[in-house]
Structures are given as C-alpha cells and as structure tokens.
Amino acid sequence: MKERKRIVVIGGSAAGPKAAARAKRLDPDAEVTIIQKAPEMSMASCGYPYYVGGVFDNRNALLSTPYGEVRDPHFFVHTKGVKARTLTEAVSIDREGRTVRCRDLHSGDLDDVPYDKLILATGARPRKPPIPGVDLVGVTTLQSMKDADFLRRIRDDKSITKAVVIGGGLIGIETCEALQLSGIDITVIEMLPQILMFLDWELAKILENHVRSNAANVITDVKVAGFVGENGQLTGVKLENGTELPCHLAVLAIGVIPNTDLARDAGLDIGQTGGIAVDDFMQTSDPHIYAVGDCVELVHRITGKKTRAPFGDLANLEGRVAGENAVLGNQVTFPGTLHTGICKVFDFSAGSTGLSELRARQEGYENVVTVINASLDKPEFMGAKLLISKMVVDGNTGKILGVQCVGPGDVAKQIATAAMALHGKLTVADVVNADLPYAPPFSLPIDHFIATAHLMENKLKGRLKSMSPIELKKNLDAGKDPFILDVRTPDEFEAVRIGIGETLIPIGELRHRFEDLPEDRDREIVCFCKISLRGYEAALVLESAGWRNVKVLEGGVMAWPFGREK
Amino acid sequence: MKERKRIVVIGGSAAGPKAAARAKRLDPDAEVTIIQKAPEMSMASCGYPYYVGGVFDNRNALLSTPYGEVRDPHFFVHTKGVKARTLTEAVSIDREGRTVRCRDLHSGDLDDVPYDKLILATGARPRKPPIPGVDLVGVTTLQSMKDADFLRRIRDDKSITKAVVIGGGLIGIETCEALQLSGIDITVIEMLPQILMFLDWELAKILENHVRSNAANVITDVKVAGFVGENGQLTGVKLENGTELPCHLAVLAIGVIPNTDLARDAGLDIGQTGGIAVDDFMQTSDPHIYAVGDCVELVHRITGKKTRAPFGDLANLEGRVAGENAVLGNQVTFPGTLHTGICKVFDFSAGSTGLSELRARQEGYENVVTVINASLDKPEFMGAKLLISKMVVDGNTGKILGVQCVGPGDVAKQIATAAMALHGKLTVADVVNADLPYAPPFSLPIDHFIATAHLMENKLKGRLKSMSPIELKKNLDAGKDPFILDVRTPDEFEAVRIGIGETLIPIGELRHRFEDLPEDRDREIVCFCKISLRGYEAALVLESAGWRNVKVLEGGVMAWPFGREK
Ligand SMILES: Cc1cc2nc3c(=O)[nH]c(=O)nc-3n(C[C@H](O)[C@H](O)[C@H](O)COP(=O)(O)OP(=O)(O)OC[C@H]3O[C@@H](n4cnc5c(N)ncnc54)[C@H](O)[C@@H]3O)c2cc1C
Ligand SMILES: Cc1cc2nc3c(=O)[nH]c(=O)nc-3n(C[C@H](O)[C@H](O)[C@H](O)COP(=O)(O)OP(=O)(O)OC[C@H]3O[C@@H](n4cnc5c(N)ncnc54)[C@H](O)[C@@H]3O)c2cc1C
Ligand SMILES: CC(C)(COP(=O)(O)OP(=O)(O)OC[C@H]1O[C@@H](n2cnc3c(N)ncnc32)[C@H](O)[C@@H]1OP(=O)(O)O)[C@@H](O)C(=O)NCCC(=O)NCCS
Ligand SMILES: CC(C)(COP(=O)(O)OP(=O)(O)OC[C@H]1O[C@@H](n2cnc3c(N)ncnc32)[C@H](O)[C@@H]1OP(=O)(O)O)[C@@H](O)C(=O)NCCC(=O)NCCS
Ligand SMILES: [Ca+2]
Ligand SMILES: [Ca+2]
C-alpha cells in the first residue's frame, strides 16, 4: 500500500477549507487536516453585513450548507473526509522537519503536526491605525464571527443611536448600510477624496450621493485623529480637522493586512505588495508549501504585475487550485485577478472589473480613452432602472481595460458580462455586435453593455466628441463659458435640472431654432439630455449645421455627480 | 456642393429605423426615407406579450422613447432627421433605375422613390399552416400592433375563457403566459417532443412542468389537424390524434417566414435557409442594396454556417451596421449570431447561447461532452433561487459550444456571461478560474457559471463520471437495475423524492455504511442529492472504497425532468 499523503492546511475560513476538500476529493487516500484558530470554521464572512443588518436572523446560516448542515469539524470529517481542528493556532513551521507547531487555544498545549504538503490560508486581518483610543470599548471591526455577533447584538439591543464607520471601501459601505438598517445614525469617514476606490471619482460620487440620500452622512478628505472615551468606553471620534463626532460605536474598515507572520518567520518569500509570494501554481518559495487566499499576492491579469486581491470568490478558486496541486503535483495554474468586485449600497449597486481610469493612468497606459454611458437596464414599460457605466480602453489597441457600473439597475449582469469580455481580451470592436440574451424583462434590445461599447466606438472613431462631467465642471470653475444646451423636453426640464446656465431647446425643435444658438461658430457648445443620447444627436445636428466646437456631456443629467439646481 | 445621398429603407419596425437613424447620423447630408407598410412604426414588438398580459396598460409605451415621445413620422423627421412614410407599401424594386415603387395604402396611389442605396428591412411574418379553418375569426397570431390590440381587447373584455396556443417556441410560450395572466384557460400544442427548441429536451421539460404547474396545459408530440367553427367563428381546435379542444381563441406561433418577396422579385440572391443572402457588410447580391433583420440569413459564429436568427437585438445591431455601410461605403462588418436568447416563463426564465447538445451533434461535432449543473444563484440566506444549466463542449478542444440555463434564478446573468465567453472563444480551462463580481446579494462565492465549468472540467478529466437524467431513465425503462443512492438528509427525503427505487444514505453517514451498499463491486451505482454536489462527493467516496462502476446523476432531484414520487 502506498504511503498516505499528509496535507496540512492552516486557516479554516474560505480558501483553506476549499483547498482541503479539493485535495481530499482528488486523493481520497490523503490525510487532510485543517488547523483553524477561530472557534468557527468555513464562515461566509461576506455575509456578516447582512446578518448584522437583519436581512436574516439565523446566525447558523453563515456557517451552513444550503441544506442546513453546520460546517463544523464533525461535518468536515463525515462529509468531506477532512480532519479539522478549531481553536488551534499554528505558531511556527519547521520546514526542515516538515511539521507545523500548533497550540490548542483551550489547554495551551503544543503539538507538532507533520506534513508532506502544507497550504497556508491564514487570510488577512483588519488594518488598525496607530492612533489614540483605538482600544476603547466600542471601537471594532467587522472581520470575524465575534465582530458580527457584537454588532448584531447592538442592533438587537437598540442601545446605540450614533456610530461612525471609518473607511469608505466595500466593507465600510456595507457596514454603513447594515448599521443604518439597524436604525443607527451613521457617519462614514474617508481619508481619500472619494469612497469605493475601485470606482473612478465621478461614479463614486454618485454612490456617495445615494448613501447620503439614505440618511447616512459621508465625510471624505479627512483623517481620523483619534478616539475619545470615558471609563474605557468610546464617546466620540476626533477628526484631524478638529471636528468631534459623538458616538458609542466606531467600526474600522480601512483595509486588511495579509497574515504573513508564519510564512515570514519560516523564511518564505514575501512579495512587494506585502502578500506571500506564490507562482501560478500557488506555490511559495518552498515547493512543499502552497499559499492561497487573502494572505497572498496575485498577478493582475491585465497589467501582469503583482497585486493583492482579498476577495472571497478568488479565495475559493485559489484554494481549489492549490488543493489539486498539493496532492497531484503541479497540475493547474491560477491565472490571477481582474479585481472584479461588486457591492450593494442601499438601493444601488456598484461594481467594477479591470482597471479604473485612475489605475490605467497609474499603470502607464499612454492613450487611455474613457466614456460614461447612462441608460435604463430594460424597457421603461417593464419597470426599468438606471445604470451608469464607465468603460476604460487602451486607445492604441482598442482593448477594453476596465468597466465600472453603478446605479439601481442590474449592475451584476453588466459587470459579469464585462469581466468575461476582459477574460477574452476583447476589444471594443469585438463587442459592439455581441449577441446577448435579449427579452424585455431582462434588457434593452441594445443592452447597456453594448450601448456603452457603441459610445466608445463612436468616441474612438471621432464621432462622439464628449467630455466627462469632471471636465465640464473644471472648465466652468476655471471661468470658461461654453454654451450649454439641454435638449430634453420642457417637462423634464421643469422636474430636474443641473443649473449651470444651460439653455433648453428640445431635440425635436433644434433643427428649426439655430437662431437661438451662438452666432460664433467656434464657441464651445456642450449638449446633454437625461442620459446624453439626445445630447449626442444634438451635437451631430449642430456640427452638420456648421458649429465647429460641439461637445457632448457624457451621461447627461443622470451621471452629473455634482450638486443640481433641482 | 456635393450631391445628397438618397438612402431608402423598406420596413419601419426595428432594423429599418435603426439603419435609417444611423445612416443619417453618420451622413447628416443624406436624405433618408423609411417606407413602412404598417400604420405604426418603431414598434417594440417584443413587448406585445407584456402589454397583452397586463404588465402595463399604456399602449403608447410600445411606441415611445423612455422620455415618453411617440416614435411616429413626426418624431422621426424632427428628432432623427429621417423622413418616414407609414401605411406605404413598397411593391417592387427597379434595380436598373434604382427606384422603389410604393403604394399609398390610403389612396392606392403609386409613386417611385429613387435611391442611391436601398436597405431592405422587411422582417418576417408568422407561418400559417395550410389546414382547414385557419381563416376563422378567433384564429390569430401575435406579430403586429393589430394582433396585440386584438388580444389585449380579449383580456379587457374578459369574453373568452379558453384558448389554444399553437407552437411552444419563445413567442408561443410568452403568449401562453400573457393569456394565462388574463385569466384564460390555456393549452399549448407543440408538434415536436418538446417546447422551446433552443433548449435540449431535459431542460425544456423542466420548463414545461413549470408551465403546467401554472395551470396552463401543454401537449407535445401532436399536430393540429384543423380549426372548427360556427358562423365563421372558431369553436375548437382539432388535433391529428382526434382530440378536439373547445376554444374561442387560437394563437398561431409556429415560427416566422422571412419576407423576401420584394427581394426575390428583384432578382436578389436568396439563401439556402430562406433568408435574403447578405455578406458580412449586410450587403445583398446587388451592391446598392443592403438587407437587415428578420428577412436575412446570418452566419452562425460557431459553426460558420448560414442560419436564420430573428431576434430584436440582432435586428438593431444589423441595422446599425448597414446604416453605416450604406452612407460611408463598406466600413464595418456584422460577425453573425450565437442564437443567444432568453424568455420569461411565469416565475422561471429560460435562456441559451451557442449550440444545444442536439444542434452540436447535428452539426457534426464528434466528441460532444455535456454536463448539467444545478445550484442556487446566491447564498441561501440572501433569498436564493435555483438555476439549472447545461454546458455543451467540444471534447477535442475543450471549447465551450453552448450554455443553456433555466429556473427561477438569475438566468439572464448566466447567459450573458456565457455568451461573452463564447464571443471570446474560451475553453473550459479559460473560465474555471474566472474573476466574476461576487457579493452575497448577487451570487455564490463560486458563481453558478463557474461551478458549471468546474463540473465540466471534472468530467473532461474523468473525475466526474456522470449520466444525464435522460440516460438514467432510459436505462431504467430498459430494465437495467443500477443501485440508486440518494445521499440527502432524511428530512429532505421525506419532503421530496424521485422514487425510482433509491436507497437513502446521507452523505455524512456514507463512510460508515458501506455494508448497506451492493456487495458486487461491479454493480452500477448511481448517486445523487438535491443538486448532485453531495452526489459527486459520494461517488468519489465509493470509488475510493473499491466500487468500480459509480456514476453521478447530473443535477440531482432538481434537474429530474420526469415525474417524481413526491
Ligand atoms: C465583512 C466582509 C465582507 C466581505 N464581502 C466580500 C464580498 O462581498 N465579496 C468578496 O469577494 N469578498 C468579500 N470579503 C472578503 C472575503 O471574505 C475574503 O476574501 C475571504 O474570506 C478570504 O478567505 P481566506 O480563507 O483567505 O481568509 P480569512 O477569511 O481571513 O480566513 C483566514 C482564517 O485563518 C485563520 N488563521 C489565521 N492565522 C492562523 C494561524 N496562525 N493558525 C490557525 N488559523 C489561522 C483565521 O482564524 C481565519 O479564520 C468580505 C470580507 C468581510 C470581512
Ligand atoms: C411577440 C413577439 C415577441 C418577441 N420577443 C422577442 C424577444 O424577447 N427577444 C428577441 O430578441 N426578439 C423577439 N422578437 C423578435 C423581434 O421582434 C424581431 O426580431 C424584430 O422585430 C425584427 O425586426 P425587423 O425590423 O427585422 O422586422 P419586423 O419587426 O418584422 O418589421 C418589418 C416591418 O417591415 C414592414 N414591411 C414589410 N414588408 C414591407 C413592404 N413591402 N413595404 C413596406 N413595409 C414593409 C412591416 O410593416 C414591418 O413593420 C419577438 C417578436 C414577437 C412578434
Ligand atoms: C464550502 C467549502 C468548505 C468548500 O468545500 P468544497 O467541498 O470544495 O466545495 P463544494 O461543497 O461547493 O463543492 C464540492 C464539489 O462538488 C462539485 N459540485 C458542485 N455542484 C455540483 C453539482 N451540481 N453536481 C456535481 N458536482 C458539483 C464542485 O465542483 C466541487 O468539486 P471540485 O471543487 O473538486 O470541482 C469552502 O468553500 C468554504 O468553507 N466556504 C465557506 C466560506 C466562504 O466561501 N467564504 C468566503 C466568501 S463569503
Ligand atoms: C429606436 C430606433 C429608432 C433606433 O434609433 P437610433 O437613433 O439608432 O437609436 P437610439 O435612439 O437608441 O440611439 C441613438 C444614438 O445614441 C447613442 N447613444 C445611446 N445612449 C447614449 C448616451 N448615453 N450617450 C451618448 N450617446 C448615446 C447610440 O449609440 C446611438 O448612436 P449609434 O447607433 O450611432 O452608435 C430603433 O432601434 C427602433 O425603432 N427601435 C424600436 C423597436 C425595436 O427595437 N424593436 C425590436 C425589439 S422589441
Ligand atoms: Ca471577484
Ligand atoms: Ca440575442
């Protein structure tokens, strides 16, 4: 009988259990052990905000299979054939002897667990700023079941009325929603000029406005100076600008730090970005050790550079690859990340795949072309909702580099479609005639994604001469004086209006009202409508009538991220 | 001053107006005219079923922009700069003289309209079977505004209690839903063994069961012999098997026939499939004439063969290409179709892209591999719904040939994702580690699409040895006697059960209950659970314990298309 391979996995949340279960499936003779520090294992951490916010009440749902079995060590051994030790911390790795020293967190006892292959899935921990008061009771994070339990109790107790969330990233914003749904007054503090850094500023701003309209306050461009308290209990958050926000709860959500101590202490290579270095087999610098999930760094599929991508979906997929390679030898590779992500923000969603404009420019693309599109997600008569997208393209090759989408509409489908286009390394020309599933309950005849590609095609071919809302605002603030033309109907104009000195000429009248337009054919004219479809048509009409400097305001009224007159 | 190019478009529904508007945008000097036989133009025909079914009541919504302007000739001239003549029929084309003879359907007057480029967008008409009684009052189709008005009046009048829909395709099934929502008893008659031919039989059957559970009757495998009536009014539908179904309404939905008479009479090439032949510029055999929409045949993007694809999204995209080429010379190409489509069927949706298994085999692929996957569309605790997919792959190359998906879950996102994977010509290996947008409100950590690819990967690598429900049923019917193993929990088994002689051994007990399994290690064992995830794990456990002929029933209980014990 051949030797049973011993596979040890450190970390029992997402990547670890996946790797363990996969290894056992592909080598049923293997002896697979998970070492997990926390009392629980196989936690759906991404679900914490929804448990805290009361979307569901059954705590066990976070730990259970769809058919209701709790994924505890009993489950793992009986269903998955995997041994799991919870409340057990791996404290060091002996690479020579191929053992992991473990501490039983109940008894404090140490023991050495031998391995043939080791898989590190130690995840990440929340970043904590080194500022005064960070250890006060009431300052917390949302990273563990313990955190989730703590915040859920606050919801159930109704004991707290004001809270501050520090950090406007995905987890911060989800936490903001959860607490707001719990009836708590929320202020989100973000150090950067915007929330949700996977979006470019103007789309993030639309989300920010939406968060505000849901009665949660957002303050950007400001740092937290410290926490103030009484008797060890938080009473307020102090900002660097001097403001003090009274509150009894502060949730830190300013990013995560990969847990690499074990790896570092064992002498494994740590990458430039701070994650454990792995090759595309998910193998570390020691061929007997793999690493997966939030503790590693990955390759970015577009830039080819190393990056961190702490996402639950990738943790599972990486685990699956490492689990296979650990038992069968290096068979399969993990191709890296597109940083594809999404989050729900009250009635809006925000998603992104690939590079934002900012990232593309930082990465050194010289000819970055972007366009903003706004449209409904399906026909008006089917109960449509708005989508606002931004597509980022390499102007030299036409290759799509990234797509962002926000709004109340079906953002998930947009981003899934876009992500798959990026996986196929498709160009704008490749997708303008894509054959997608169309029926009125699901999309417009020309789906929003394809329409966005049409706009980009028009822009690349010099047919759509447009500017982003940021550019227009900058020009106006700098004292430029373009003629601003709103081509919506009078009814629309009465209901909602940007208010930047625009003149209203409905598109249907435009061809007969050239006398109401600037005499100077070189004066800059900026056209728009609700979404700038009619704005685009107006621009073409004016150009063909002889105006030489006509622009379209991308996304129209709906994508205007600044204040509106009404 | 250069000559104004004269563009004439015949047909004013979807492809025609799109071509016209696009031509005018790209050549604002052009004189663009639409000739449209019907009284309305620019109709959202795909919305008819939803208007008939009462999803909305405003008839004008079918003809309006999202901002409420009716797309009539006034709108076209003022907003799009395009002249449109409704109630005008093109009766012949003089290719030598480059004129179209038109008849004013009010006055009967004829006139000749000259063109530099002509675009045919004459669409398609419903197929009518040459059977007795087809002209009785009460026998109709759902293809025009007139038809929609007729059926909507029936809804509003509540005058009819029983109707028959002939044809179980997309339009037939949508019509069935619309009439059922109007409180009418429906029977759908389908000549073939299944409804919705874009699905393979077993997925279509799941839909058929769903239609039945919504109190509409479905009869497959039977032809209509004729219609019977009294005083010119329909009273019943006679089937070839002798049955007569009493009813006062019958809707024919047995497919469409491209309107090619004008083209044929003018001597243009008609393709093998019956559509007008065009190249990839959408140009007919006459370089001055383009053709687009339901009246043409296209290239299938996977097989490379000619095919018909009467879809509203493609009509628009083809129109957009021809509009450009007509004014700027042949600039852009239309790459063809994947037959990507979707429809809503009560609380289920059904979608497909690329080739079904049946089509792939008909097309001559020698090594067609398929797999059925069932899973939730997001975590249980977020209010998940079921998805059932079938993936079709070329086993020689791993290339994905097609994906079908049905169920109450988010089918549209699945099919959009799959369609984009097909556009990228991706293989299974390319998508197993795709980076899609994951958050609990939108998907599982391993999205259903990726999970389907995982199953396929496992199957291609010989790890998942499975059979489709059809194969198992066939074996059972042929008297084979596999040992059938259900590995769900006792509670699940009590609630729902296939009832084909299965033995229940919950997965968690399996490793200790080998004595309850066949002694003969070569006896065929077929494992399943609710979706066959645990079924797969069970199969691996049994294989490693020495059973040599273990199979997984694909899709488990949820994808079982036949009757169940309970
Ligand atoms: C509130 C929240 C919301 C999120 N939402 C999303 C989302 O919507 N979409 C998305 O893609 N991602 C989301 N994420 C991220 C996602 O949860 C993580 O990417 C994923 O959990 C990472 O899995 P992992 O197994 O690598 O690490 P972790 O989940 O961090 O697990 C690591 C485990 O290792 C254990 N461990 C660490 N060190 C040791 C040691 N020395 N010995 C033993 N055990 C050890 C810890 O106890 C821990 O349980 C969210 C995360 C949070 C917290
Ligand atoms: C009920 C229903 C539901 C549908 N649902 C969907 C769906 O969910 N998804 C999808 O993708 N597709 C769907 N379709 C198909 C879609 O509507 C068609 O593909 C699309 O309308 C085709 O557009 P077309 O412009 O090519 O042709 P048509 O819409 O058929 O229009 C052709 C026009 O040409 C005019 N015409 C014809 N001959 C002449 C002539 N000699 N002179 C002047 N005018 C002429 C006719 O009056 C007609 O209005 C549905 C269709 C129907 C009927
Ligand atoms: C659940 C968990 C333990 C993984 O266990 P697993 O056994 O690898 O995964 P599953 O139970 O989903 O699937 C088991 C196998 O069945 C296969 N499978 C899934 N559905 C199937 C179906 N309908 N038919 C046949 N096989 C199926 C899968 O492909 C998988 O096999 P593979 O990975 O070898 O290809 C791990 O993902 C985990 O702990 N998750 C919870 C936490 C988490 O993901 N958190 C982060 C986000 S919140
Ligand atoms: C509406 C219809 C007349 C087409 O007209 P159109 O002017 O070509 O199309 P739209 O009004 O949608 O768009 C106009 C232009 O604005 C562009 N556009 C769309 N949204 C935009 C935005 N937010 N900003 C800037 N430009 C935008 C489009 O790309 C298009 O230009 P292009 O095709 O040259 O690239 C035609 O599609 C039609 O009749 N449809 C109704 C019926 C139908 O489609 N039926 C079948 C399915 S039910
Ligand atoms: Ca992702
Ligand atoms: Ca389509």
UniProtKB/TrEMBL annotation, chains A, B:
Keyword Oxidoreductase: yes
Alphabetized UniProt keyword annotations: FAD, Flavoprotein, Oxidoreductase, Redox-active center
Keyword Flavoprotein: yes
Cofactors named for this entry: FAD
InterPro entries, per the entry: FAD-bd_OxRdtase, FAD/NAD-bd_sf, FAD/NAD-binding_dom, FAD/NAD-linked_Rdtase_dimer_sf, Pyr_nucl-diS_OxRdtase_dimer, Rhodanese-like_dom, Rhodanese-like_dom_sf
GO molecular function, one term: oxidoreductase activity
Domain Rhodanese, chain residue ranges per copy: 478-566
Name of protein: Pyridine nucleotide-disulfide oxidoreductase
